[in-house]
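Incident log, support desk, overnight shift.

02:14 A customer reports that sequence design results differ from what the structure should imply. Their input is reproduced verbatim below. On-call engineer (initials T.W.) acknowledged and began investigating.
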């Protein structure tokens, strides 16, 4: 994901991690690599396993408070988290999803 951010020229991004090993370790790795590459983190937040609509809205508000961030990098549970974030009309950022992909080559 750092390589994608570099290729897109994004020097200022936000992050969202799902609570737990996958999300927290994934974002920690991304942040460490991003800093080495000169990419700054605008907002870094975590979604609790049983987050309410109000908590999701607060996360979206925090992300929206940094409009100069070029993207939001997500390490989240696809079934619940991504869907609920998408439902919030305040968020109009491009997401890099941490879902498995097939190599292009």
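02:41 Re-run completed on a clean worker. Output:
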């Amino acid at each position: 994901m750092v390589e994608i951010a570099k290729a897109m020229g994004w020097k200022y991004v936000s992050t969202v991690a799902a609570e737990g090993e996958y999300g927290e370790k994934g974002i920690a790795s991304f942040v460490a690599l991003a800093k080495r590459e000169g990419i700054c983190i605008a907002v870094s937040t975590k979604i609790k396993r049983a987050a309410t609509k109000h908590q999701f809205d607060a996360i979206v508000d925090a992300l929206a408070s940094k409009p100069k961030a070029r993207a939001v990098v997500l390490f989240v549970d696809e079934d619940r988290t991504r869907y609920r974030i998408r439902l919030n009309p305040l968020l109009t950022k491009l997401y890099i999803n941490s879902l498995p992909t097939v190599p292009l080559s």
